[in-house]
Amino acid sequence: MLAFERREKILSTLYSDKKVFVAPLASTFNVTEETIRRDLEKLEREGVVTRNYGGATLNERTSEDLPYQTRNTINLEEKRVIAQLVPPLIKDGSSIMADTSSTVYEALQVLQQSKDHLTIITNSVSILQDFAFSSFDVFSTGGSLRKNSRSLVGPSAIRSVQQYNVDAAVVSCKGISMTQGIMDTNEPEADLKQYMQNQARQVILLVDHTKFGAVSLVKTFPFEQVDCLVTNKKPAEEWLDFFGQHGIDIIFPS
Amino acid sequence: MLAFERREKILSTLYSDKKVFVAPLASTFNVTEETIRRDLEKLEREGVVTRNYGGATLNERTSEDLPYQTRNTINLEEKRVIAQLVPPLIKDGSSIMADTSSTVYEALQVLQQSKDHLTIITNSVSILQDFAFSSFDVFSTGGSLRKNSRSLVGPSAIRSVQQYNVDAAVVSCKGISMTQGIMDTNEPEADLKQYMQNQARQVILLVDHTKFGAVSLVKTFPFEQVDCLVTNKKPAEEWLDFFGQHGIDIIFPS
DNA sequence: ATGTTATGCTCGCTTTTGAACGAAGAGAAA
DNA sequence: TTTCTCTTCGTTCAAAAGCGAGCATAACAT
């Protein structure tokens, strides 16, 4: 048995048991404990494990092996809380429009584990990239590639969106305000979002608590179009009243 | 046994066992360990394996690593030779259709360094991904995401391609034959390629020497449509005659 | 003929491993 | 808490295996 094989086996033990011990490893591989220690030392240098007295434990997922989107996401915890609330709203086999937001991305990651089959129509390059090997049917809107946000926008994307009628549009935004409505930072994406909303039987808006009352550049679509709003903590009473008046189902962790 | 045969056998061992060892390979092929090491070195340069002390392991596609296209490419050296020949064919400021092939991907990498501004229309997710921060204007065709090749295909992609008229289509294929024409392995991509060719003033075909005489499943478009063919080594005389008869400029390293 | 590629061979360097021994840590006993 | 004992660790040395660079040779292509 070669050194790298042994280290691979140690790693696979680590993945299943989360921890390993020097002495038993030494006897199973018929090498001295010194050798095992050196193996663990190497794995530690690579950042895979943390050594401790008598053995080593697996490092939980470092940010390196997470997908691009998740790596660069701020307020990731809040977004994951929201993502966990989405599956009950979506029926198996549904068709969904998804925008470029990281909250929607995380929601799709959760849906991937809880649904057998979904059809996703998106203008997000990250979703195309990371769900290429999923069980989803994925369609791209096409369009002009908008730098820095890796979204596809423009007239071509809009025409494309209009071809589809879907069960739900799952979208996010940059800010919501009772007087100004639902807002985004840039025109092309806000524009496209409006068309997405238009083609969907049900509109699900995902917004974390930092978006409440935040004002942003461009208005997208009015609250009347929203069927369901998912957020990460219970909003203030006036917001609950406001959503009630507009017939919006509001969902937050109990 | 020829060198490339040996490397192919090593590769097939790798695909079944995930790893190989220097010493046993040397004895089964009756060559020195030096030779095996050089084989593995070459495979490592191509991004197929990772070498370790005493052997090498197959690189698994974790799907999250960045240069997916490049890692997955075999004969990368040949493709890069071809890529180097492309810039003189493209004028600064041109618009280009690019397909999903790894040769075209490499050509775009080279163009990025030698041209100020280009407009790229593509059905490749990898290109969207990796050129999002380039100086190119990138447009996606949209369409249905084809798993495993990460290409966008289908009627929606075709409609989209027909919207554009470009200076050049830069495409590759799986095989060319004097009797069968230009061929590909799958229908959706072959189909789209035909429409790409149709919208371009100039059609540039990139093919490495392994494609000559190779027969594949689906015919794409006839040789009459090709304006320029770029390859990595001088083709046989009969091919040169053949290209001459069809008015195709042939380009290879001098 | 000339250049390129594949291969083998040699030599010095690096990696791996085991063995030995003192240092450091953990847990039980005082 | 302090001390004692046993285990575990780190360091060092030496031997063995693997490796890379350079050179020479043969086959092949141009």
Automatic annotation (TrEMBL), chains A, B:
It comes from the Bacteria. PANTHER family: AGA OPERON TRANSCRIPTIONAL REPRESSOR-RELATED (PTHR30363:SF44), HTH-TYPE TRANSCRIPTIONAL REGULATOR SRLR-RELATED (PTHR30363). Keywords: DNA-binding, Transcription, Transcription regulation. This is Transcriptional regulator, DeoR family. The keyword Hydrolase does not apply. The keyword DNA damage does not apply. InterPro entries: Carb_Metab_HTH_regulators, DeoR-like_C, DeoR_HTH, NagB/RpiA_transferase-like, Tscrpt_reg_HTH_DeoR_CS, WH-like_DNA-bd_sf, WH_DNA-bd_sf. Residues 3-58 form the HTH deoR-type domain. Pfam families: DeoRC, HTH_DeoR. One of its GO terms (molecular function) is DNA-binding transcription factor activity.
